[in-house]
Write a structure and sequence with these properties.
7 helices, 5 strands, five-stranded mixed β-sheet, 202 residues, Nucleotidyltransferase, domain 5, alpha/beta
Length: 202
């Protein structure tokens, strides 16, 4: 296991939480919560962004099998537009922890913010490279969201969702200008909002 991991962060009953998808212009924001089983360690856990897609999928299969509990949850595009992306991300993380069975005795959340909840918890900056359970959560969330964007690519061909996963690449922005805004685009995000028709002030 990576030397960056702190053993006291990986005791039984501690959940790690992470989210994926704050930056994209399209698709839900997805969060995962994982309680690992200290008796069934998983080698190779780290920040999902530092792993290849094939390695993430292989590790996700091991996490599903060996974790004591896991849950993947989301906040929808409509919720992102209504609440803002930060609050929607916190909502998705809250839902992921609520879905764990058994419930955790303590929660470690990647980043510097906590959802509003009653769980004993603390934020961990760069937690996906410091806490095995957070790394596991980042992998599950990334695998789930990437699969969803591949499906959106089938539903909305021509936007390149399978390649850029909704992020504002030059190709995605060009497709938006040429093809218009889809129902899965986040209308509150400036590059998308700029392409929407002007609404009447009356």
């Amino acid at each position: 296991m990576d030397d960056l991991f702190r053993p006291d962060f990986d005791a039984a009953g501690i959940a790690g939480v992470d989210e994926v998808g704050r930056g994209p212009l399209a698709g839900d924001v997805v969060a995962a919560a994982v309680i690992l089983d200290p008796a069934r360690p998983i080698d190779g856990l780290r920040d999902s962004k530092k792993l290849s897609a094939a390695r993430r999928e292989a590790l996700a299969a091991v996490i599903w099998q060996r974790a004591r509990a896991w849950c993947v949850a989301r906040a929808s595009v409509a919720e992102i537009d209504r609440l803002n992306i930060l609050q929607a991300s916190l909502l998705a993380m809250h839902r992921a922890v609520q879905g764990l069975e058994p419930q955790p005795r303590y929660v470690l959340v990647d980043g510097n913010r906590l959802p509003r909840w009653d769980y004993a918890a603390e934020p961990v900056v760069k937690g996906d490279d410091r806490v095995a359970a957070i790394a596991a959560a980042s992998i599950l969330a990334k695998v789930q969201r990437d699969a969803e964007l591949v499906e959106l690519d089938r539903q909305y061909p021509g936007y390149g969702f399978a390649r850029h996963k909704g992020y504002p690449t030059a190709a995605h922005l060009a497709a938006l200008r040429e093809r218009g805004v889809t129902p899965v685009h986040r209308r509150s995000f400036a590059p998308v909002r700029a392409l929407l028709p002007e609404t009447s002030a009356e």
